[in-house]
Amino acid sequence: MRFIFKTEYDQDVRLAKHGGHVFWYGLLGLFLVCAPWLLDEYWLAQLTFVLIYSVVGLGLMLLAGFTGLFSIGHAAFLGVGAYTEAVLAAQGWPFPLSLAMAAGLSAAVGAVVGLPALRVKGVYLGIATLAFGFIVEEGLARWESVTGGNAGKHVVPVKMFGWEASNESSFYAVCLVVTVLATLAVLNLLRSPTGRAFVAIRDSEISAQSMGIHLARYKTLSFMISAALAGMGGALYAHKLQFISPDQFNILQSIDLLLMVVIGGLGSIHGAFLGAIFLITMPQLISLGKDVLPAAIGQAPGLQGVVYGLVLIAFVMFEPMGLYGRWLKIRTWFQLFPFYRKGMFKRQKSFQKSDRLK
Hints:
By secondary structure, the protein is mainly α. It has 16 helices and six strands. The chain has helices at residues 19-38, 41-65, 75-90, 95-113, 123-142, 144-147, 168-190, 193-203, 205-210, 215-241, 251-264, 269-290, 295-298, 303-318, 322-336, 344-348; strands at 4-6, 12-14, 153-154, 159-160, 163-164, 243-244. The chain has a two-stranded antiparallel sheet. It has a two-stranded antiparallel ribbon with strand order 3-6. A two-stranded antiparallel ribbon has the order 4-5.
């Protein structure tokens, strides 16, 4: 079974590559639709957080995984979207309009932050985005007349056209719709000329420029789209918590977001979702592990940061393609069994992209 439609050039565009995709993604979609009736309120809340972080992860994956521009201050865009939504929702704006404004304002801020990307890259770009994150956090804390400062700001529930998301199930439905639309938009963007230009810039800026790709335009556009998705995630995040304060959008949040896409698997849409699942479930696993570990270790301050660091080091050393890369290898092993050869994935590393042309 294939979903195919014709373009103006009479070419087939397949929304599902084969029947297996239709079956498994259909099964996943059925589970997500039925989740409010299958899960209790706690697990539904955790799944809602996964959807919210997935939207943010899609934006950061587009920037870091497909354009090759790393940001260590992405929590700033999350904060801009959250506070924009909080202010507009309090004034009675319907959710679709306030969400669009949150995405638009975050995109405008992303265009400003994208300017350093035209001159610097690598660790220097990371430092520039880190500095921007500190500026936004301090600005949110000082602009008390709008943001409430360090005292924080309450956020009203989602309201639109007389309907209100008054419980966990209804808000989950809103997050699911936004996540699905954001995923489809990113998938279509990546197979467009713009998306291919992003990938070309990631692989080699010199080669991309020689093919006529305007580096400044596409780098700025990548920052804007990434920031817009982060702003949309921030809007959902604000409604989910119902209370926001500047310290929720600090450097630690930015590192968590970057950790999410790296561990999920850079350069893959699936990696954004796998990374979001990791980011939500890992604190729960650490809390369970505290009861098993000796008191000197389990009750030690900073245990979560140590575990995150060890996990990141392990992935960088042994599985740089992240969770999605590991899944691809497991799937290939089953496909090739019993003809799998032990060293095939080691030889595969020699074909990975190098930095020789950057």
